[in-house]
Design a protein that fits this description.
25% of the residues are buried. The protein has 5 helices and no strands. The protein is globular and about 60 Å long. 84% of the residues lie in helices and 0% in strands. Helix 1 packs antiparallel against helix 2 and helix 2 crosses helix 5.
């Protein structure tokens, strides 16, 4: 896989920039209807970094990703997102984990559902990013 760490670095930078932008947008959002806004933010934080990483993969490799490569990158991106979500959930669910006997099951099911969605979204938008990169690539 050409440029694995470069593509991962681009993914990480896009993720940090996306989160900063979403935090800034969230601070000026009215509180009515905020649940839909923040749900959209979670999906946006998954798809934009994967798209940008796919675009840069095409730029670095000079070709689109094969299906196994795209799945490997998507699994790596989902693992990164899963670790970040696990940290956030662990911080947010301290009381529930300490008091409720089902807290760990709730924690695990939410995390598994999130990582599954992250895997599918990352796979689709990584491939979409490589196709866009191929379409806009200008040979030198």
């Amino acid at each position: 896989m050409p440029g694995f760490w470069r593509v991962t670095l681009v993914y990480g930078l896009a993720l940090v920039l996306m989160e900063a932008l979403l935090l800034a947008a969230g601070s000026v959002t009215p509180h009515s209807g905020a649940a839909a806004f923040f749900s959209g933010c979670l999906v946006t934080a998954l798809l934009v970094p994967a798209f940008v990483a796919g675009f840069w993969f095409e730029r670095l490799a000079g070709r689109g990703a094969t299906s196994p490569e795209a799945w490997r990158y998507a699994a790596w991106f989902a693992a990164i997102q899963g670790v970040l979500m696990a940290l956030l959930l662990w911080l947010a669910m301290q009381d529930l984990l300490a008091e409720d006997s089902d807290g760990a099951a709730i924690f695990g099911s939410v995390l598994v559902a999130y990582v599954t969605v992250a895997l599918l979204i990352s796979r689709f938008f990584f491939g979409f990013g490589t196709r866009q990169g191929r379409r806009t690539h200008i040979p030198r």
